[in-house]
Design brief:
The chain is an alpha/beta fold. It folds into two domains: 182 residues, 3-Layer(aba) Sandwich (Rossmann fold), CATH 3.40.50.880; 117 residues, Arc Repressor Mutant, subunit A (Orthogonal Bundle), CATH 1.10.10.60. The chain is 44% helix and 14% strand. The protein has 14 helices and twelve strands. Strands 4-1-7-8-12-11 form a six-stranded mixed sheet, with helices on both faces. The chain has a two-stranded antiparallel sheet with strand order 2-3. β5 and β6 form a beta hairpin. The protein is globular, with a radius of gyration of 20 Å.
Length: 323
C-alpha cells in the first residue's frame, strides 16, 4: 500500500566506508525528482557513522555532515554499496536493527546487502546483491534465501538490489510503491533512464550487448510504446526492425533480459496503471487502451504484479495523487 503521510517521505541513505559514489548518488537523484502538487515527495539525508570526510571505493573523499541519527527520523533507510564486506561497521549494523524493529522500510544497493545480512534482517528472506558477490554473501549468511539472477527483490519491508544501474530500478520501484506508476515513469523520463523494470529481470546475460552502430532495437521499442493498444505480434516487431523473428528475439533478450512478448506485457501493465491513476476511464476501456484486451485480463495481470484489483489500485493511488 502507498504511504499517505502529509509530509514528504523521509529517506536516510547510509554511507559506510568505503562507499560507492554512484550508489550514494542514485537515491538522492531519483527521490529528489519526485514533485507532487503539495511539494517534494521525499526528503533525503545522507548520513555516516563518523560525519566528515568519507572515503569512497574510487579513492576520492566525500564530506557528509550528518550522523546516523538521521535514521531515527527516516521512514525508509537505504544502505549504499560499500567495499567493507569483510568488516561491516557495527554501528551501522546496530542502527539497521533498530530501524527494522521500528517498522521502517530498509533497502540496500549492491553490496549494502552485506550490512543487512550482518544485522540478521535477511534471515529467511529473499535477497540479492551484485552477481559477483552473491556466492560470497550466501556462504557467509546461509540463512539468506539468495536470488542471484534478479535486479532487485522485495521481501516484506526489506528490499535488496544488485549492482550499479539496478539501484536505479530499486529506487523507481520504491517511488512506484509510494506514489504510483505515473509518478515513477515521470521520474524515469526526467532522469533519462529506462522506464520501470520489474525486479525479476536478469542481472546479466552471456550474450554480448550489441554495439551502438544502429543495430539496437531501441527504435522498435519506442515504436511499440506508441502502439500498445494494438495487437502487436513478433512478426510486426521484426518487420519494423527489419530483421527476422529469430534475430529479433535474440537481440531483444540481449538488450532487455526479456522476450519481446514479455516486454510488451510489462509495458502494457504499466500503461494500464498510469491510466487507472490519471483518468476516470472504465476498467474495460483501460484494458483495451493498454492492449490487455478485457477487464478480466487486466484484473489477472494487475493482481499478479501489484497484488491489487484495478478498482483497488485506482482507489489507493487516485486518493494519493489528488490529495
Amino acid at each position: 500500500m502507498p504511504f499517505t503521510c502529509p509530509r514528504p517521505h523521509r529517506v536516510a541513505v547510509i554511507a559506510s566506508r568505503p562507499v560507492s559514489m554512484f550508489n550514494l548518488a542514485v537515491p538522492e537523484m531519483l527521490f529528489g525528482k519526485v514533485q507532487l502538487d503539495g511539494g517534494p515527495g521525499y526528503e533525503v539525508e545522507l548520513c555516516t557513522p563518523d560525519p566528515g570526510s568519507v572515503g569512497t571505493s574510487g579513492g576520492a573523499d566525500l564530506v557528509i555532515g550528518q550522523g546516523l541519527d538521521a535514521v531515527e527520523r527516516a521512514d525508509t533507510v537505504v544502505v549504499a554499496g560499500t567495499g567493507s564486506r569483510e568488516d561491516p561497521d557495527p554501528r551501522v549494523v546496530a542502527v539497521l536493527r533498530q530501524a527494522a524493529r521500528a517498522g521502517k522500510r530498509v533497502a540496500s544497493i549492491c553490496t549494502g546487502a552485506f550490512l543487512l545480512a550482518e544485522a540478521g534482517l535477511l534471515d529467511g528472506r529473499q535477497a540479492t546483491t551484485y552477481w559477483e558477490y552473491t556466492g560470497q554473501l550466501a556462504a557467509r549468511y546461509p540463512a539468506v534465501v539468495m536470488e542471484p539472477d534478479v535486479l532487485f527483490v522485495q521481501d516484506g519491508q526489506m528490499l535488496t538490489s544488485s549492482g550499479y544501474a539496478a539501484g536505479i530500478d530499486l529506487c523507481l520501484h520504491i517511488i512506484r510503491t509510494d506514489y504510483g506508476a505515473a509518478v515513477a515513469n515521470t521520474v524515469a523520463r526526467l532522469a533519462l533512464v529506462a522506464p520501470v523494470r520489474h525486479g525479476g529481470q536478469a542481472q546479466f546475460t552471456d550474450t554480448p550487448l550489441p554495439a551502438e552502430t544502429g543495430t539496437s532495437l531501441a527504435a522498435t521499442r519506442a515504436w511499440a510504446m506508441t502502439r500498445l493498444d494494438a495487437p502487436l505480434t513478433l512478426t510486426d516487431l521484426a518487420r519494423h526492425a527489419a530483421v527476422s523473428v529469430r534475430t529479433l528475439s535474440r537481440r531483444f533478450h540481449a538488450e532487455t533480459g526479456l522476450s519481446p512478448l514479455q516486454w510488451l506485457l510489462h509495458q502494457r501493465v504499466e500503461r494500464a496503471k498510469e491510466l487507472l491513476e490519471t483518468t476516470t476511464l472504465p476498467v474495460d476501456q483501460v484494458a483495451r487502451a493498454s492492449g490487455l484486451g478485457t477487464a478480466d485480463s487486466l484484473r489477472q495481470h494487475l493482481l499478479r504484479r501489484a497484488g491489487l484489483t484495478p478498482s483497488d489500485y485506482r482507489a489507493a493511488f487516485t486518493r494519493l495523487t489528488t490529495a
